[in-house]
Write a structure and sequence with these properties.
heterodimer; A: 337 residues; alpha/beta; eight-stranded parallel sheet; 14 helices; 10% strand; globular; B: 512 residues; seven-stranded mixed sheet
């Protein structure tokens, strides 16, 4: 074994505060490998316990609206067209035309080349979800595989931001992560974060997708979450939705625990986005419960919490209609896209 | 609105079809007792649920006679597979009436419905299913070719898991061919009476199970009755000692499941978030009314502050209140007397100089409540580190090395259970064998399974419940060295060579 010169990494405020100045790959590795382990059985039991919370009437009405307000309505198909994106935007603004009290979703999430159409379709309704407006999120960095050169990933990001994307959903290089090249993954996130900057000094929000289904172990998910936060992620996100399993409750709980620990350590709030596979209101409510009991209810705003989903909104709308009218209508009473 | 203020989601007691008054269950019938009656109340509201009969010594005698008659005329003559059919039937009926049993248990005991629904009642069914499977396989229990039932079993059970303890006692006794007279705890007789209805539904032959209710003297009349062959008791160490004295010198067989003061040992490399859950589950499950509760937390010194910090944060999300609400984590203390004991011992802890922290829970106006409490800066000499509190009170001690952890963990008059939290498998395996406790949980706590024997060292009692060992407590193996056969646990029952060699060795030993 030889001692080699430590490899320097791009400095971030967060990493320097936690690991000291002149950040090296060795320091990052020691931190990630020194994290407390995750007992899979215990984690899954805790998640199952959170699923038994019973939500009734007033809490449920609030929960349903919160699910819509924090949803990234998503279309990520090779067959997407400008027409489909326009229709998605219409639904994002007015999810249920039969009930105008229904809130708008937080954002529409599309491929980078669809950003201009989304921006155009949103028009004056484009903006901050906390003001009742709708953001545009773009997946970038050679989504979903992430298999491209850094130059292409950065160009992908810059283009989407220039076209008007408010949020960038990037994927990490899982190959590099699984082979232990934490520094490579770290530097790429830092570079993409820089590419999110706009000329006016503002920046698009960066959501870092860990693709937890490919990371395989809970220990890896915890390390990747820490890595992404230290590199500057505004949000950490479970999945692309293209790999099974996508979001699960135990994985979301685990990532929320990392966010909670980071907050306890620094006072900074990082957002969380489970994506893929969450289809029913009942399931989504379990996620809200998990957020409330892990990091706290203050996370349940569009700035700190998102659902990445395409079909979830429809089920929520059916539940809302049921609460209003007292009976279930059926899938033809909500729009397909 | 605040989301965590989940709208109340209470189960309605209207699902229950309760009578205003319950008598005794003797010889397959509900009969009036000859003693006074007493009220059973809901610990959460102090409202009267029903009145319960107090069995006199005469009533106990009638019950034991019924059990003897049933033993001699029906149950001991029945084939094992037929006994098994009855047990399977009881198990299925418990599942069918699960919701009702869960509601009744929460109402009467004060424990949260999510525990009765998700833990107690499913385990009750599991226990009957498990022992139903053994009823026709007794010759494979490791006790030789033809083990025999003992006769009439007198069983006295506690109030912390009323229905589950009933199942732990009745299922193996019936599977082994014994008949039973059981006395539930005075404050929690209700589900035993519902269980009697299940026995009627199952067409269990009259007298095979008899239930006598009442306070201490009823139990005393039962365990001292001349015509019982076996006494099984779960409860406090003091009462256990008294029973041991009364049974000494008789032919009665005795098993005791008594108190505990379990060490829950957390090493610095433990899976931290899961360890916190395990600590919470270890001591705050069932309001700490668990004989195997992890009431002594032993934390490695370098992570003490972090563990306590995280634990306090976690405890502040626990929800205390209406036990029938599905979102309740912490229910009511079972009785005013127990609440008083918890208060007294907690005050002692403070007077001894330990640091007290209590979760910020709203205490309801009525009922018996005690918010989750942690004592830090506890020394091994403090009473709260030695005496069983039997409530939601955790005493935290520290250690520096594995050897110190073992020494401190074993330094107790009890020895029922222990827990170890570490990611390092080799350390886990090395330490488990050094802990003098009947059950050691690794990276989990308070998990029960009918196939796994449960019981204590030292003042935690003797004998085992659950598994093959639990069956042995209700069987006699004449001409067969039962303890030796059981300790040779690896002997496969089909191994004919060893099965014939063993008795010879025993006879030789006797001849010497």
């Amino acid at each position: 074994m030889t001692i080699t010169q430590p490899v320097g990494l791009a400095p971030t405020d967060r990493a320097e505060r936690l690991l000291g100045g002149d950040l090296t790959e060795t320091a990052l590795r020691l931190h990630l490998e020194g994290l407390s382990g995750v007992d899979a059985v215990g984690l899954e039991q805790r998640a199952a316990g959170l699923s038994t919370r019973s939500i009734k009437t007033t809490s449920k009405a609030w929960a349903l609206d919160t699910i819509i307000r924090t949803c990234d309505l998503t279309t990520l198909e090779g067959a997407d067209t400008p027409g489909k994106v326009r229709s998605l935007v219409a639904k994002a603004i007015t999810p249920d035309a039969t009930d105008l009290t229904t809130p708008s979703v937080a954002a529409v999430c599309v491929y980078g080349d669809m950003v201009p159409y989304a921006v155009e379709a949103l028009g004056a309704r484009h903006g901050d979800p906390d003001q009742g407006l709708v953001s545009v999120a773009a997946v970038a960095t050679a989504f979903p595989s992430g298999r491209a050169s850094l130059a292409i990933k950065l160009a992908d990001t810059r283009e989407a931001v220039a076209a008007g994307a408010d949020e960038i959903d990037m994927v990490i290089d899982r190959g590099a992560f699984l082979s232990g090249q934490y520094g490579v993954v770290f530097d790429q996130i830092v570079a993409v974060k820089e590419a999110c900057a706009r000329p006016d000094g503002t920046a698009a929000h960066l959501k870092v997708i860990l693709e937890t289904g490919e990371l395989q172990t809970y220990d890896n998910v915890r390390r990747a979450s820490w890595l992404a936060i230290l590199a500057g992620a505004d949000f950490i996100k479970t999945s692309t939705g293209k790999v099974s399993p996508a979001a699960t409750l135990p994985v979301t709980l685990l990532m929320l625990e990392v966010i909670r620990d980071w907050h306890r350590l620094t006072g900074e709030k990082v957002g969380m986005k489970p994506a893929g596979g969450i289809r029913s209101s009942k399931d989504a409510v379990r996620y809200l419960v998990t957020v409330a009991e892990t990091v706290g209810e203050e996370w349940l705003t569009p700035h700190l919490w998102r659902f990445g989903a395409s079909s979830l909104v429809n089920d929520v709308l059916l539940q809302r209609q049921k609460m209003r009218t007292g009976h279930y209508s059926g899938p033809d009473y909500v729009t397909v896209d | 609105m605040a989301f965590l203020e989940y709208a109340a989601a209470p189960e309605s007691p209207s699902i229950l079809n309760l009578k205003a008054q319950y008598g005794l269950f003797i010889d397959g019938e509900f009969v009036d007792g000859h003693g006074d009656v007493f009220d059973t109340i809901s610990p959460a509201t102090e409202e009267v649920i029903a009145s319960i009969a107090q069995a006199t010594a005469g009533d106990v005698d009638t019950a034991v006679r019924a059990a003897r008659r049933a033993y001699e005329t029906v149950w001991s003559r029945m084939s094992g597979s037929d006994r098994g059919k009855y047990l399977f039937r009881i198990a299925r009926l418990v599942q069918e009436r699960a919701r009702e049993l869960a509601v009744a248990e929460s109402l009467d005991n004060g424990k949260p419905i999510r525990e009765t629904r998700d833990v107690d009642v499913p385990l009750v069914a599991a226990w009957f299913f498990y022992y139903a499977g053994w009823a026709d396989k007794l010759e494979h229990a490791g006790l030789g070719p033809n083990p025999r039932a003992l006769g009439v079993a007198a069983q006295v059970i506690p109030w912390n898991f009323p229905l589950l303890m009933l199942a732990w006692k009745i299922a193996p006794a019936l599977a082994a061919g014994n008949t039973v007279v059981i006395k539930p705890a005075e404050t929690t007789s209700l589900t035993a009476m519902l269980f009697a209805e299940i026995l009627q539904q199952a067409d269990l032959p009259a007298g095979v199970v008899n239930i006598v209710t009442g306070p201490g003297p009823t139990g005393q009349a039962l365990v001292t009755h001349d015509d019982v062959n076996k006494v099984a008791f779960t409860g406090s160490t003091n009462v256990g000692r008294m029973i041991a004295r009364q049974v000494a010198g008789t032919q009665k067989r005795l098993t005791l499941e008594l108190g505990g003061k379990a060490a829950n040992i957390v090493f610095d490399d433990a899976p931290m978030d899961q360890a916190i859950e395990g600590i919470v589950n270890g001591i705050f499950f069932n309001q700490g009314h668990v004989c195997c509760a992890g009431s002594r937390l032993l934390v490695q010194e370098n992570v003490h502050d972090e563990v306590i910090d995280r634990l306090k944060a976690r405890l502040s999300t626990l929800r205390m209140g209406d036990p029938l609400d599905k979102n309740t984590d912490i229910g009511a203390i079972n009785s005013a007397a127990q609440l008083e004991r918890i208060r007294t011992l907690s005050d002692t802890g403070e007077n001894e100089g330990a640091e007290r922290w209590t979760a910020d829970c709203r205490i309801p106006d009525k009922g018996f409540w005690f918010a989750p409490t942690i004592f830090t800066k506890v020394s091994a000499a403090h009473a709260i580190a030695r005496e069983e509190i039997f409530g939601p009170v955790l005493s935290v001690l520290t250690f520096r090395t594995p050897a110190e952890a073992i020494t401190k963990a074993n330094n107790t008059p009890y020895g029922l259970s222990a827990g170890i939290w570490t990611e390092k498998g080799s350390r886990m395996l090395a330490l488990v064998d050094q802990l003098k406790a009947g059950v050691v949980w690794a990276n989990t706590f308070n998990r029960f399974d009918p196939a796994s024997p449960f019981g204590g060292y030292k003042e935690s009692g003797y004998g085992r419940e659950g598994g093959r060992h639990g069956l042995a407590a209700y069987l006699e193996a004449s001409g067969w060295d039962a303890p030796a056969a059981l300790s040779a646990a690896s002997t496969p029952p089909a191994d004919a060579k060893r099965a014939t060699r063993k008795p010879k060795q025993t006879r030789k030993a006797v001849a010497k």
